[in-house]
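Response to reviewer comment R2.3. The reviewers asked that we include at least one raw input/output pair. We reproduce the pair for Isopenicillin N synthase family oxygenase here without editing.
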Amino acid sequence: MSDKETNDAVSDFGVPETDRAYSGYTLVESREDNFDDDFRPQVCDMADLRGAPAARDRFIDRFGTAMVDVGIAILTGHGIDADELQAIDRNALNIFTTVPEDQKMKFVSTDCAYGEPYYLGYVPLQESMPALPHAVEAWEFDRSAFRITGEDADAALGYWPDEKYESAFRKFWHACEELTQQLGRALLQYLDVDPSLYDQNISPTNDVLRLNHYPPISSPIEDLASPARVLSHEDYGLLSLMTGSPVEGLQVYRPQNEAWSRVYTPADSLVVISGKWLSYISDNRFRACTHRVSVPRDPAQRAVPRVTVLYTLHPYEAATLEVLPGFQPERPPISGKEFMTRVADRLSERCRNMTDPNTSGHAGIRPSINGAW
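Raw output as returned:
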């Protein structure tokens, strides 16, 4: 088996998903890939969701259709102003580039799964994908890292190299928490399901805030062993919200035409990505977005850092996940812990196939756990 997946949507839970048209895609960008860069994700304005009935219906239809089609949308009118988004990006870059290396290493997570830190902490550049030297370094935080109601404020500060970063990211974390719940309800309405039905499953949230830093690259692209920075994958959670980047990198797979598309994000917008949890509870009505990150083609963009800040919502380990009412599920209920484990195992299996000496894969590549894009 090569790095070309032949049936990616089968086996996560032992149920065929042929209707989802995952007919195969490469884990890393290759010359054989088909690209369709005319594709533009659906733009959804949160002002519509908060507006008159006709505007709300328009938002729900556009957003729901986007999650069915590819699993990606561009969110505007989200309530986070341009200055705050710029400050978020600036602080994300600073935490990686101004904190000394020896201090960053003190925050490396000791709780590991599938080859990299899984819950909280600093992820060094080489740890996620040792075969991809121009990949990504990351820093992950959950709600216990913020001075918020129900959490230990003193303990929260212990997750940060400097108190100023907790203050800098707390407001953004709160905004994403609220947005995710509103978006989740809108998707239930799209399915004609009671929008309050899932409130108990997503509040309080079990979320991760991940900061991603892709360092500048000085080498010519032809000298790189691979253009890949993050392998093709689907996020585990319900929905992910991410700051946009002016630096090229994010690509999404569109099964309808078996093509990849580079995603360009308008200034001051957020990117919404659907995950495996959303696909599971909707009985695959919503697609878990397949995406990856590659090195920019433009040398000027390779010469500057790429930074993104990602918020993603995961199920609690003790939660029971089951298909929403009104569908004919082929899958039995499953615990949040078992769900996450199976999805992670599947991703690890795909990556292990790439290390087989009888394939053309890239040795040593291990999966990214919390959506490094």
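Residues 1-11, 14-23, 112-117, 359-369 have pLDDT under 50 and may be disordered. Residues 42-354 form a domain with the Jelly Rolls fold (CATH 2.60.120.330). Further pairs are available on request from the corresponding author.
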